[in-house]
Amino acid sequence: MSDATGSDDGDWEAIIEFRRIGTALQVIAVDPETGREVSMVGDPRLSRDELGRLAAQKLRYVLNKQRNDQSDR
Fold first, then answer.
1. Is residue 59 within 8 Å of 5, Cβ to Cβ?
2. What backbone phi and psi angles, to 5 degrees, belong to 46?
3. pLDDT of residue 4
4. How far apart are CA 71 and CA 65, in angstroms?
């Protein structure tokens, strides 16, 4: 199942996908502009909104870190 979520800083969106793996839920977030992808495993008792928000937050962190690393060169 896929979904899209916005962030607190405007109209940035990530594509969010949920996959059940045994008793856990894998959450994948993809930045549609760069194709950068991150994944995490979450507790299926949490809401999909919360898991999607956390995955999007992780993706935003990775994108910012990548930009900062490139600007340091």
1. no
2. -75, 155
3. 54
4. 10
Rg from Cα positions in the chain: 13
Instruction: Say how far apart CA 2 and CA 58 lie, in whole Å.
Output: 17
pLDDT band at 7 (very low <50, low <70, confident <90, very high): very low
Three-state secondary structure call for residue 23: coil
Domains of the chain, residue spans: 2-71
> Average of pLDDT values for 27-53?
96
**By three-state DSSP, how is residue 33 classified?**
coil
Q: What average pLDDT does the segment 36-49 reach? A: 96
Q: Say how many CA atoms lie within 13 Å of 56 toward its Cβ.
A: 21
> pTM of the entire structure?
0.81
